[in-house]
Amino acid sequence: MNDENPPESGSRWRRILAPLRRIAPFALRYRGRIGLAVVALAAASLATLALPLAVRGMIDHGFSTDDPAAVNAYFGAIVGVVAILALASASRYYLVTTLGERIVADLRATLFRHLTRLDAGFYDANKTGELMSRLTADTTQLKAVFGASASVALRNLFLFVGAVIMMALSSAKLSAVALAAIPLIVLPLILSGRAVRKRSRHAQDRLAEASAYAAENLAAVRTMQACNAQDAAAGRFAAAAEHAYDAARDATRARALVTAVTIFLVFSSVVAMLWLGAHDVLAGRISSGLLSQFVLYAVLAATSLGELSQVGSEVTAAAGAAGRIGEILSIRTAIAAPEAPVALPSPTRGRITFDDVSFSYPSGAGGAAVQHLSFVVEPGERVAIVGPSGAGKSTIFQLIERFYDVTSGAITLDGVDLRRLDPDALRRAIALAPQDPVVFGATIAENIAYGREGASREEIVAAARRAQAASFIEALPQGYDTELGERGVTLSGGQRQRLAIARAILADAPVLLLDEATSALDAENEALVKDALDDVMAGRTTLVIAHRLATVLEATRILVLEQGRVVEAGTHASLVAAGGLYARLARLQFDAPDAAVGERALEQGG
């Protein structure tokens, strides 16, 4: 049994530390700083180990002489050692603390960059709030390990080894007693390690869930307040926070118990050594100074071992955080550039072909979103897509943007399969104006130039004017430098829509996707933006998801979708004459006394 325990223990610790090894390359970038920290740490440890020697000399010699100069010399030596200790400790603290901050800053930047590259399917299956917890709370936990905890561990390891050596040189008899107590101290740490790790990970998971719930509700705070759901949301978050507290309390209780047992065993062994040493002093076998020296080294060894046990708990908790971060970093996006991506023809003309395309979302909910879909959009053509909710209109846009890959069939742009293109190159060829535009908490100019950070102020202003947004922008106190609130909540729906259109204009892409981009505008602004869009659409391949049939009237061609299939195609006049689904939708909308009733009829399929 004794032969099997050490390998098992070693294997367990290798499993614990394995996640940290995945993060180690972030630390190894700064070998020079690590080396300086180790030098400062070694100097501080040696100065600490020298103090008991100075104390012994002072007790055995300084107090037994009538020469004040000798006493001054011993105290002067102690002050010198303390000065070295202070300088080395300050250097160590600065180096390791900044090292931890530097590593975590790099890790956060890498993790966020990686998250920006993951595909839409990943975000369909993961909550943004939990990902933010990984980006903030978990990386903060790692900062302590790569900074302070690593330094404390090495310092206490140095002190423990050095103190044990000096104890053996001071008194072999008393050292034997101390070494015999070490297994009693280490055994509880080994036995409790797994329970502490499990409780720590559970606490971190509960905290991530609470953070995710808070982020989701705060992002929709107006909806929450409009529905009078504040109390319910606050109650649910309080319950989630309570669960997180209970989990953290359990983890802390386990660590506290381990700490109490360790401290009792450590200092009980020190008391036992002091008792034996006192009898040796009385018998004249050792001097008072030597006993004091040994006790100081024993205290150093005991406190160092106790600190190592606490660091071990921190390391195991951080290993859990590193494991979760490592899991995210190891995820490969399903939408990636091929090893040898094909370049789009230059200039890109914008011919889009759907060839027997079928697609189901990764979650599998709702079955096939589109099935056996085939159509061609010629360069410069303006095609409208209509159909009831769930017919697959938005899915077509997401497939063109290659947020997802088709399940079967192929989509090509200018004859090139989208899967053979670099996604970045593909998306540079496409401009999108969504129905529910996203506005960021930045300036108006930065929002218009989002994705085109190198755009000049003249280009931004020109895009805003073409989108009929310049009038309301220039009326603001800071104009284009006005800071918008999170998600642009200080703007009206029409203003947000016009900013999105300006962003699409600035992109100057050969393919334009419009998800009923005028739906949030009043009649006057709709007419202005419509003129701007007519200008932008000229010479570009344009697909329009239409809810208002007034938008459809000017389309070159109309595709009518139902249950993921094109059931009709043609011009407005030909489709009305055919008397099919489109004709029924058109009759409901144009004959409705309220235009909004007709729009809902079109969206819901009559």
From TrEMBL:
Keyword Transmembrane: yes
Subcellular location field: Cell membrane
TM spans (from-to): 34-54, 74-95, 144-168, 174-191, 256-276
Entry-linked InterPro entries: AAA+_ATPase, ABC1_TM_dom, ABC1_TM_sf, ABC_MsbA_ATP-bd, ABC_transporter-like_ATP-bd, ABC_transporter-like_CS, P-loop_NTPase, Type_1_exporter
Gene3D superfamilies recorded: ABC transporter type 1, transmembrane domain, P-loop containing nucleotide triphosphate hydrolases
A Gene Ontology cellular-component term: plasma membrane
Domain ABC transmembrane type-1 intervals: 36-317
Span of domain ABC transporter: 352-588
Entry GO MF terms: ABC-type oligopeptide transporter activity; ATP binding; ATP hydrolysis activity
Membrane topology category: Multi-pass membrane protein
Family recorded in the similarity comment: Belongs to the ABC transporter superfamily.
Protein name in UniProt: ABC transporter
